[in-house]
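User: quick one, fold this
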Amino acid sequence: MIVPTPMALAAVVTALAAPVLAKYSVVEDYAPSAFFDHFNFYTGADPTHGFVQYIDRPTAQQTGLVSSNGSVAYMGVDHQTVSSGGRASVRLESRNTYTHGLFIADIAHMPGDVCGVWPAFWTFGPNWPNNGEIDIIEAVNRDTNNHLSLHTADRCHMTGATALTNSTGDNCFAFANGNAGCGAYDPNPQSFGAGFNRIGGGVYAVEWTSQHIAIWFFPRDRIPKNVLSPQPDPAQWGTPVADWSGGGCDIDSHFREHQIIFDTTFCGDWAGSVWSNSGCASTAASSCTDFVANHPAAFADAFWLINSLKVFEAK
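Assistant:
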């Protein structure tokens, strides 16, 4: 029988106590103090045909639609003027692009539960839909639950919207089912809009690898400490809200070079098309665009507050 020396035992204890190296390290920190420096302000026509005027950064800063106090970044919409040509808003598109990564956003407030609005936090690649789209936060009008989805070119079927309801199926091809993609609604009413804002928001995290695309949502009072640490580890976070995988889609050929997008548009292809059955037709307006144009005060709460946004890559 070999008896280990005290020095050998100490070495074993030290090895066992040594911290495990994190899987991810930060590659870009969208800190609130310089948040808008990481983005281009898109000013073209809305690709989703919204009743909106996207404005540039100087105009947005001058009119108070974007600002930062160093600890939180604000993005809002015009809620003071009648806007017959579309309501002023911003659409931010990250200067850098990403293929794979871990994306973690701490959000204190988002637009929502307002007739006519269509806010989104998402990513997409060039030559849409050939390089994919990941919708992290998206809903319209008076929706109370977040809608998560993927949109791709043809020949991409993925399963795994694990905790979702009202699924749109596993065919992610953008043109197969009216651009519904593959996804569904999160049953948690704190995942979007007023329910999210009442609890002080929370954290959305996305892990994108060659094997899967997973999205977690953590309400403010249930954020694991590891999530906002310098070395986040998704293996410690539990089951994601959605976890798309499966042999029916080559992720690497369908998802590439994504920009990060924040925007708030109005009406358009989604919010406008469901206006009549979303509880909004009972407003004093005859249509979605009529309401958005003539009721500016309704949109005072249609703003984002971003505490932090970081992108990590696998070591």
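User: anything notable?
Assistant: The chain has a mean pLDDT of 91.
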